[in-house]
Amino acid sequence: MHEPAHPSPQPDAPRAAERLLPEPRLLSGVYGLVLASALAAALDSPDEQTSPGSDALWVLLTAVAAAAAHGYAHVLSHRMSAEPGGLTAGLRAMLAEWPVVAAAAPTIVLLLFAVPDWWTEAAAVEVALVVNTLILAAWGMWTARRAGRTWPASLRAGAGDMLIGFVIIGANAVIK
User: What stretches pass through the bilayer (predicted)?
Assistant: First the structure.
C-alpha cells in the first residue's frame, strides 16, 4: 500500500487560529461587548448627576462578576456530570472567561475619558455604543471567515452581530 508523501490534514485537526482563540472565548467576547454596551447605556441616565468614573467601575465589576459566574457555571456543570474537578480546575474555568472582561475594555476606557471632562458622559456612552457595534460587526465577519465561510456569508454574519448593537442603540434612544 502506497502512503502519500504529505498526508492530508485531518478535518478535525484544529487550525492555528482556532487554537489562538477557540469558539467559547469568541462567544464570551461577544457577550462581554453586549454586556458592556447595555450596562453603559443603562448607567447613563439623563436625570442623574454624571459619574463616568463610577460607571466605568460598574462596567468593570459587572464584567468580572459575569465572567466569574460563567466560569463557575462551567465548574458546576462538570461536577454535575461527575467529571473530576477541584479548586484549580474551578479557578482555571473562571479565568478562562477573560474575554468577557477584555471586551468591556473599550467601554471602560471611553467612560474614563469623560472623567477629566474631555467630553460628557453621554457622549462617551454614545461613542462606546458605536465602537462596540463596529467591533461586533468585525468580530462576526472575522469568526465567519475563520470558520471557512465565503465573504458574502461573513458579511451577513457581521451584519447580524452588528444588529445586536443597533438594538442596544435603539433601546437607549427610546428609553432616554
Answer: 26-44, 56-75, 95-116, 122-142, 154-175
Per-residue pLDDT of the chain (176 residues; tens, 9 = 90+): 554 554 444 444 445 444 455 667 778 888 999 999 999 999 988 787 889 999 999 999 999 999 999 888 878 877 655 556 667 777 888 888 999 999 999 999 999 999 998 999 999 999 999 999 999 999 999 988 988 999 999 999 999 999 999 999 999 999 98
- How far apart (Å, rounded) are the C-alpha atoms in residues 33 and 60? 12
119 by DSSP, 3-state: which?
A: coil
All cell numbers assigned to 124: 462617551
Amino acid at 35: L
Grid coordinates given for 102: 477584555
Beta-carbon contacts of residue 147 (< 8 Å; ≥ 6 apart): none
CA distances from 173 to 42, 57, 126, 152, 163 (A): 11, 23, 10, 31, 15
125 three-class SS: helix
- Sequence-distant (6+) residues with CB within 8 A of 121 are 44, 50, 51, 52, 55, 111, 114
